[in-house]
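ok trying this again, last paste got cut off
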Amino acid sequence: MPERLHPDIELVKALRRGDRVAFDQLFAKYGGKIYYLAKGYLGSREEAEGLVQEVFIKVWENRKNIKEHLSFRSYLFTITYNSIRTLFRIKYREQNYLNEFIQDFNEPSYNPALSLEYYELLDQVDSIVEKLPRRQKEVYKLSREDGLSYKEIAKILSIDTKTVENHIHEAIKRIKRHLKKMGLISLVFMALFL
């Protein structure tokens, strides 16, 4: 197929070889488009930013399997579409779970053992967070406990917004890794609160 039909073919070839410059160029070309598409569906700037990061992590991890003769743009938007669908499914499940949890918690017959498990799980998460590297822990707490945006955290700590994103991503990855070892209720917690 003529290269003019697939203007990204050389970048994709380089990406398949692990070329980070090609990856950065593809990110620069498509990152904004994916962000605005995701923000339109999700309505949240931070969720859209997270989704862009997730999409490009998948691209990097699967770079060797990308078919260079096919449209990279279509490949990218397929990943984006599937990621948005997955987020919607998670949000739907979260909402249903939260509704049930609130209903059960407000009923006089709620199970105190379940409530105890929940608080024990919160303690476990706090314990994991305390073991994070100093800066990662600081960024995570400012985001999750104080509710600050990435931009606000970057300004307070005099670091780049991208660095804040990386710290949050790594912190969540570590927390999830520890919680997965703990079983089912931990997975529910991850889906709801991380």
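PB: full thing came through this time. Residues 1-5, 108-114 have pLDDT under 50 and may be disordered.
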